[in-house]
Structure formats: C-alpha cells, structure tokens
C-alpha cells in the first residue's frame, strides 16, 4: 500500500506519482499523449504545404494570404493560454480529446473553403485546438511518468510536434498531386477526428485532477491500482504541490531584481526562435515554390527541416546533460545562423540535394534551441513561479510566431530566398544574444558533481 501522506493523514498524490514503477498502463498513456502531439504537428503544418497551390489556383498574392496564417497562430496563442484553466475545471482528458477533435474538424472544413477569409476563420478555430493540445498532452505525460523519467518523457512528447510536421510533408507530397489541396485538408482533418474518439475511449483522467475531486476518489483508487500503486478503500487524497501552487507568487515576481534579467532574456529568446521556426513552418514551401521548384519538391524542404528538428532536439537535450545549457544552446544558435547564411550561396534550382541537406541541418539547430528552452524555464524559475514563468515566456514567443506570418510573406515578395534566409539567420543571432544573457543556465554534469547544492538551488 501507499505510504506517502500529508500532515492531515491523506495520501499525497504528488509523492505517489513521483515514485514507483513505470507500468505498461502508464506507458500507454504517454504514447497516446505523444501521438496526439504528432497529430497536432501534422495538422498545424498542413497549411504551409498547401499555400503555394492555393495561391496559384486563386491567383492571389502571398501578402493576401498572410492574415490566414496569422489567424492560426493567434488561435494557437489563445488555446495555449486557456487550456490549463479549462483543464482544471473539466479535466485534462476531456480537454485533450476536445482539442484534437476541434483542430481536426476545422482542418477538414478548410477543404470546403471558398476564399481566404473563410480559411482565416477556420485556421483561428483550428489554432485553438492545436494550441490547447500541446500543454494538455505534456501535462498528461508528466503526471503519468515517475519523476526520474519525467524530463525525458516530456521532451520526447514535445519533439513529436516536428515529427508530425515531417509526416505531414510526406503525406502532402503524395496527396497534393492526386487530390489537390482540398483533399489534403479533408483527409488530414479526418485522421485527428477519428483519433479524438480513441482518446475518449482509452485515455484515463489525470490522477492529480481526480485527487482534487472527492466524489471521484473511487475512480482514482482504481486508476492507481492499474498503475501498481494500490490503496485502501477508505483512502483520502491531497496534492501538496497543488496546495503550494495556490499560494504561488504572481506575475510581478518574474521581474524582481534577482530574476528580471533572466525573464527578459528568456522572453527574447523565445520570441526570436519562434519567429524563425514558424517562418519555416508557414512559408518555407512557398519560398521554394517561388524559386521555381515543383510543389512536391518544395514540400520536401519542410519535411527535411522537421526531420532535422527531431534529431536536433533530442541531441541537444543529451548535450545539455553533459555540458550544460549555456554551451549547448549558444553552439546551436551559431549553427542555426551559420547554416541559414550558407544556404544563401546554394543555387536552389541546380542543387536540390544540397538544399535539402542544408535545410535539414538548419532545422536541426533551430529545434535544438527551441525544445530545450522549456527545460531552461523549469530550471531558472523556482517552484512557486515556474508555471507562470514558463507560460509567460511561451506567450511572448507566440508574438514572434504571429509576426512571422506577415514578415515571411513580405520578405519573400520583396527579396526572395536570399532575404528570407537572411531573416532566419539574423533571428537566430538575436536569439544567441538573448540566451547568452541568461544568468542561471542548467549546469553540466561536471559542474553538478563539483557543486551539487548550487545546481539544485533553482530547480
């Protein structure tokens, strides 16, 4: 039976989840959550593959399509900000399933859209689901994974977004020549709709959520038994971590003298990295098509970018464990900027193989910076302000993503591939400066061995 208890005698659900085995049932929950993020990245990036064909079919400019791209990113920002609040009221399971259904249904409806305005409205709705799915899925992963495996599990879940984008590229290259952009959205939307029904049928509710609902403790006891953590029939539950979180400092504490530099630097880093990332997600195939590449080959560019991103994010996470986040993130920022500038020298029409390799390398470095920045936030901010600090940094970063929808179209129109690649390179140079200004970086292995107390101070 479980032994972790609060002072009032109730079992502390946080302590229960942190320890014990990682059972097959828990692994299934993590896999279901991770696949939801694959769907998230899949549908989130379909628009980037479809834009060149839509522009050609409707005879519109890239600038005229920018509001539709921006609408999706605005929806993602709102969805990310609201998902946690709604999940606290109705449960993580229902929010995740609803988010997947919402972006699937809206994506499917885009296939019937008669104009750009309709696409913009539907992308806004889809963005609400796309934005809400990532925090919901990562929360489910964290709450079903023991503490010693949690960081890797959450990182692997986040990496599923570029993995979904990579699959979207392979899917688009096969579907666009046969069924066109409308078929791309019909099928691409139907898949997450079906998956949302599977989530409702198979995904259990979060133990932390159930612990706060006394009327659902019987359900929680059954769930814990399936996780090899049996309890007595009369066991009461509490959540010491959540109780402490209710007393956490407010938004203003992020700007206290000891913390303001790190807060502003991290915000700047997120803004620039997301500007670069979403410029690629939204406009990379369009830029390549404008340079004369066939639509299917242009789509392969974003596929290569996402493939590199998966490798880069996991590789940087391992490097941070060895060398610390300052060295790893700075090296990756330099690699991202350098690869973007070097790509300017590639003749896109004559050297497509070199182009794809270069885009994969660039995507590897950019995503190697973005994914570990969530872990950096968790290290910089102490427990009482960790959620607030991470959410605010991500929200500020979304402004960079929204800016990319207009900047990408304008830069490609005015300066073509050279100007577009310069924008990506300079964005990562600014990210380099911002992340270099962060004072409390995650220490590497050697530093932890020398000063373990200092390393844990801000964890």
Topology of helices and strands:
Blueprint: E1 11-12, H1 13-18, H2 24-58, H3 62-90, H4 92-110, H5 116-143, H6 147-202, H7 207-211, H8 217-226, E2 237-238, H9 240-245, H10 260-290, H11 295-323, H12 325-343, H13 352-370, H14 372-380, H15 383-436, H16 445-450, H17 452-456
Parallel strand pairs: 1-2
Spatial order of strands in the largest sheet = 1-2
What are the secondary-structure elements, in order, as H or E? EHHHHHHHHEHHHHHHHHH
What about the largest sheet? 2 strands, parallel
Strand portion, in percent? under 5%
Number of domains: 2
Shape: globular
How much helix is in the residues?
over 70%
- Output the number of helix runs: 17
Please name the CATH architecture of the largest domain.
Up-down Bundle
> In whole angstroms, how far apart are the ends?
30 Å
Structural class: mainly alpha
CATH superfamily membership of the largest domain? MFS general substrate transporter like domains
CATH class of the largest domain: Mainly Alpha
Q: Which regions are unreliable across 5 or more consecutive residues at pLDDT < 50? A: 3-7, 448-459
């Amino acid at each position: 039976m479980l032994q972790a208890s609060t002072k009032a005698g109730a079992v502390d659900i946080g302590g229960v989840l942190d320890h014990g085995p990682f059972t097959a049932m828990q692994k299934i929950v993590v896999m279901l959550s991770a696949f939801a993020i694959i769907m998230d990245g899949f549908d989130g990036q379909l628009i980037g593959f479809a834009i060149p064909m839509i522009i050609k079919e409707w005879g519109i400019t890239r600038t005229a399509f920018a509001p539709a791209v921006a609408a999706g990113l605005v929806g993602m920002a709102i969805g990310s900000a609201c998902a946690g609040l709604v999940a606290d009221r109705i449960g993580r399971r229902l929010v995740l399933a609803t988010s997947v259904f919402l972006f699937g249904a809206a994506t499917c409806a885009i296939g019937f859209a008669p104009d750009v305005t309709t696409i913009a409205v539907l992308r806004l709705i889809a963005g609400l689901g796309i934005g809400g799915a990532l925090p919901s899925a990562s929360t489910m992963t964290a709450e079903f994974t023991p503490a010693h495996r949690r960081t890797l599990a959450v990182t692997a879940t986040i990496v599923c977004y570029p993995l979904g984008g990579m699959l979207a590229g392979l899917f688009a290259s096969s579907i666009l020549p046969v069924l066109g952009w409308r078929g791309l959205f019909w099928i691409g939307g139907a898949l997450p709709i079906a998956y949302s029904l599977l989530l409702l049928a198979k995904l259990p509710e979060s133990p932390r959520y159930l612990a706060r609902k006394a009327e659902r403790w019987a359900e929680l006891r059954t769930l814990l038994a399936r996780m090899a953590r049996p309890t007595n029939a009369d066991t009461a539950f509490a959540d010491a971590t959540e109780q402490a979180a209710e007393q956490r400092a407010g938004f203003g504490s992020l700007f206290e003298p000891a913390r303001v530099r790190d807060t502003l630097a991290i915000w700047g880093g997120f803004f620039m990295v997301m500007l670069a990332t979403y410029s690629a997600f939204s406009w990379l195939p369009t830029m390549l098509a404008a340079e004369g590449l066939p639509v299917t080959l242009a789509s392969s560019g974003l596929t290569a970018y996402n493939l590199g991103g998966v490798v880069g994010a996991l590789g940087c996470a391992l490097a941070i464990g060895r060398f610390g986040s300052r060295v790893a993130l700075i090296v990756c920022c330099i690699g991202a900027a350098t690869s973007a500038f070097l790509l300017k020298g590639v003749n896109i029409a004559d050297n497509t193989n070199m182009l794809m390799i270069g885009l994969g390398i660039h995507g590897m470095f950019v995503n190697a910076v973005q994914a570990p920045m969530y872990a950096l936030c968790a290290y910089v901010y102490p427990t009482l302000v960790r959620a607030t600090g991470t959410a605010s940094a991500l929200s500020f970063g979304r402004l960079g993503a929204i800016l990319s929808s207009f900047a990408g179209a304008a830069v490609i129109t005015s300066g073509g591939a050279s100007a577009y690649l310069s924008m990506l390179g300079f964005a990562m140079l600014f990210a380099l400066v911002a992340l270099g200004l962060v004072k409390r970086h995650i220490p590497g292995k050697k530093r932890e061995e020398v000063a373990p107390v200092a390393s844990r101070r801000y964890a």
